[in-house]
Amino acid sequence: MAFWRNRDNLDRYYNLQRNIIKILKFTLVFYVFISCSNESEVKKEISKIPIEIKIERFDTLFAKVTLETLPDLKKEYPFLFPEKYADSIWIKRSQDTIQQEVNIEVEKTFLDLSKEETELYSLFQHIQYYFPEIKTPKIVTIINDVDYRNKIVLSKGLLIIALDTYLGKDHHFYEGIQKYLRQNFERKYMVPDIASMYAKNQVGPIRDRTFIGNLISFGKELYIKDLLLPEFTNARKIGYTEEQYSWAITNEEYIWRYFIDKKLLYSTDSSLMPRFLYPAPFSKFYLEEIDKEAPDRIAQFIGWRIVDSYMKNNNVSLRQLILADAETIFNRSKYKPKK
To answer: A Pfam family matched by this chain, by name (predicted)?
Structure first.
């Protein structure tokens, strides 16, 4: 009799376990359904936001400027004509042979900007949804002597795009520029670069001098880009090739373990920033087999993963994320790198 009683108890135990598993599965499906439903509602709301997008081609207007048409152009775009320069300087520049060669190459590459207009339309719908205080700017394209440090300028309701910095990484204009910088001189990175400017403005300057503080700040920017560019690949958002992003995903656990083992998180050593956070030929682990393959800015990728984990594991708003300090985000993120 004791045997059958134990067998009955065992059966009841297994039945209970099966029921628990069913409940957990149902709960998981329910939350996935709710999450997808919420995402769908957000998508619908965003799609209804009215936006007016017009890209003004100052670059083509300046290419055709004459002494007679210059006054009207200056009146229309006063912010592009510093008063200290005489009209003769502008005419001379427009007729310069190098300037004319750049004009031809830009016109050839950007004969049509309809794809960028479509992407910008979606971007500014998302900006309006998440940051309704931001107004859609006046968008102007220029040629700016391949000034890659100012590819995008955002200021006082103006968005200025230097088209001559998006002609393609192998364009002969860029022969004297380092390869790791040229990688992002592709037109597919133009809209992500614009989204970066808005994300940076929301996050603000980095005040925490620690490595983790810098890492989290960049992570916030990339998380905001996630929200603003939901249809873009993660590689495109961070400015990686697909191969570089795949390497980062594959080696995430190793990268994180390196940061922990070397006790880098709370270090204020300024040399860590160019090694792991700033544009460079590669991230510098000082390990030959790794440095050959590691893409630059790898700590930005880790910061992105930590911030994403924080948002998934805490019921906080986007504004609360932006205001939260790095230590709070890190401690509450429950971040675990993918193996």
So the answer is: GldB_lipo
* Count of Cβ atoms closer than 10 Å to residue 202 Cβ: 18
* Total number of residues shown for the chain: 339
Distance CA 339, CA 303 (A): 17
Q: Domain check: are 69 and 166 in the same one?
A: yes
- Tell me the C-alpha distance between 165 and 189, whole Å: 10
pTM of the model: 0.88
Rounded distance between C-alpha atoms, residue 52 and residue 54, angstroms: 7
Rg (CA), the chain: 26
Q: Are residues 161 and 74 in the same domain?
A: yes
Residue 158 lies in domain: 55-201
The verdict on 222 and 305 lying in the same domain is: yes
Number of domains in the chain: 2
Local structure of 140: helix, strand or coil? strand
Give the pLDDT score at 28: 47
* Residue 281 tokens, joined: 């030929």
Q: Is residue 196 domain-shared with residue 237, that is, in the same domain?
A: no
Position 209, amino acid: R
SS3 85: coil
| Cα separation, 282 vs 285, whole angstroms | 9
| Rounded (5°) CA angle 39-243-176 | 115
How far is residue 62's CA from residue 72's CA, in Å, rounded to a whole number? 11
pLDDT per residue over 110-126, tens digit each? 999 999 999 999 999 99
Choose one of 201, 226, 259: the last residue of a domain: 201
